[in-house]
Amino acid sequence: MKRALITWFMIFLLTICAGSAAMAAGTDPLAFSVTTLDGKELDSSVMAEYDLVMMNYWAEWCGPCMGELPELERIHQQYPNVLLLGAYVDRNDQKALKAAASAAITYPLFRITEPMYDYLEIQPSGNFPIPQTCFFDREGNMIGEPMIGVRDYDGWAKIVEEMLEVTQKEPGK
Fold this sequence. Notes:
Layout: H1 2-22, E1 33-35, E2 41-43, E3 52-58, H2 63-78, E4 82-88, H3 93-102, E5 109-111, E6 132-136, E7 142-148, H4 153-169
């Protein structure tokens, strides 16, 4: 009886572990179809045109997010082979547009969609820290782990260069 109970418990744990591994971020390629905050249609097919996709999760009420926007815009301008996307995590599109305009942002900004939360690092409380940035290859496969916090241009440039090296080493590249 004890052996059967232990066996059942082990099977139960393996089932839970296998299920949570299947749900881990990045197991499914990123796919989206959104309307940008300025009214343009954008979908994940655009990723195929770039060597790297950089998705930054932000909000206009987040001081560190706002401080980082000019640095991200500079990355956008300096790396034409990188698609930079701004996933807005709140609901006040007008405030977001105003904030983006004040920072002279030209990369696409849109409100986060439900599936995009799957890629974020989420705390046990259910909250997620911002700014947070994720990287994807042209097929939408996540590269590495989400990066939390602010970086200056040099910090982001170093990370982008490292991520570009990873995408260039992938089979078929």
